[in-house]
Design goal:
Layout (H helix, E strand, L loop, with lengths): L7 E5 H14 L5 E9 L2 E8 L5 E2 L4 E2 L11 E8 L8 H5 L5 E6 L9 E4 L8 E4 L12
Parallel strand pairs: 1-3, 1-9, 6-7
Antiparallel strand pairs: 2-3, 2-6, 4-5, 7-8
């Protein structure tokens, strides 16, 4: 079975807002999130994020254990922040890349494409776009 390379990543606008908000909250340490969505014909749609339980955050690293997570086939990759402002993957990032895509948010975490990098597991840049309405809001049970 061959795996199609990722040609494009499409983010729900709420996801991008969540990525930058979480990065600002974690600053001056790195923050880390798991992205959920789906992949079809080389296009990855990111529709939500998960905060990994028990994650470690430091000034130049962030990590978590996959063993702490339930099995979920909708995980498409990991997003983390770089407080240095550089949104390009480091050697360590490439050694620990997991999933179809790796997203790096660079300080000052302004919600713009200039502060966001999207890469494959080899560190190659992947084009991306942001759309509204990809994610379905959870049902309102009136609680």
């Amino acid at each position: 079975m061959s795996v199609l390379p990722v040609k494009m990543v499409v983010f729900d606008s709420k996801v991008v807002d969540s990525l930058f908000t979480y990065s600002r909250m974690a600053y001056p340490r790195e923050g880390i999130l798991i992205m959920r969505g789906k992949s079809k014909k080389g296009v990855v749609e990111v529709t939500s994020v998960v905060i990994p339980p028990g994650a470690d955050h430091g000034p130049a690293f962030s990590a978590f254990s996959w063993w702490m997570l339930p099995i979920d086939f909708s995980y498409v990759g990991v997003a983390h922040s770089h407080p240095s402002g550089n949104h390009h993957p480091s050697h360590e990032d490439l050694l620990h890349a997991t999933g179809k895509v790796m997203v790096i948010m660079g300080w000052p975490y302004a919600t713009t494409a200039a502060n966001l990098g999207v890469y494959d597991h080899n560190g190659n840049s992947i084009p991306f776009e942001v759309k509204s309405g990809l994610a379905k809001d959870p049902p309102d049970y009136g609680l």
